[in-house]
Input
Amino acid sequence: MFSIAVTCLAVVSRLVSGDLQQQQALSSAVSAFSQKFYQQTFSTTKSSVFSPYSVHSALSMTSLGARGDTATEISQALGVTSLGASTHLAYKELIQQLNTATDVELNTVNAIYVNPNYNILPQFVNDVTNYYSAVASNFDLSAPGGPEQPINDFIAAKTKNTIKNTVPTGTIDRNTVLLLVNTIFFNGTWERKFPAYESFSQDFHKADGAVELLLMMHDDRTINVKRDNVNGVDVAELPFKGGRFSLYIALPQKVDGISELEKLLATAGKVDDLFAGLSPVRLSLAIPVVRLSSSMMVSSNLKDMGIVKAFSPMAADFTGITQSAQVYLSHVIHNAVIDIKETGTVAAAATVIDIVATSVQLPPAESFVADHPFLYFLRDKQTGLILFQGQYSG
Output
């Protein structure tokens, strides 16, 4: 049995590019993969969060050991056929850039855990460690708490205890050849924080007509906005400190327009259009305080996306990993968390009596109020890479 553990996290923002053409091609592939994965995984889910980068990079790492039709299916599902072997070079550069980001806390880590009783080809381990900076180690079937415990401890440490118990007890047994792990942790502050005292509860209108009272962040500010009346969606960009990463909110103009927006983004190239043509507008802004988490097995979703033979005990070809046994993918586990808030707590009191001439400030003429279901994207503006995506429906 061959297993993958994929884990990721988001709290909230930053990246760079070496070979610009390869980076752009890789980012476009991740964007397209993200929409396909979203359609397969969250079509009936209300609020959601996932990291397309985490799933895509873990599968790309796995493809180093795939051969024949198995390799072709993975490459096609990831959208990297045109990149070929340069996919791994692009990821090597990308990982280096992610882990040297400034102004925000951003860290992505890969690991490979090997069953010492199997003859894993040294070239595969070398490639995983070289291209993906993976930490290589053996897992211990006799470990206290089970062989999963040290791996879960590693994931928890790399995500600052935000993601725990990723690999369920009983996942690893003597037939498990190896596990591949990816984690991403992101923590950034808004370029302009929301005043905590401006947060208050207001009605959130759900697509089915129900109304829920939710805590919303409020502020009057100038941000980049696009009103796309043709496709019926408004897009707002909330930049993080440093300006490289932003959270984009795609808000349907109709309260029940989320399904139409999801269908639109299933069309090739449409997701990239969301982020084009925004311009500065002073407006009254209101978005919910959001905390979402997900924990899921996504093997069946990946099969629906075309990765079929990799999961077949008879048809899988991972002879680039080992030639001493027939191995296949058993589990693909994905966990994610996102926490969108005012960022920081301010407590102060002051009494000032100051008598001055009145200066009248007119309120903004426009507003962007995310009071009904929307999509969100945590994205690197420099490369176009989507690190996290999801839907919020209250």
In short: The longest helix spans residues 20-42.
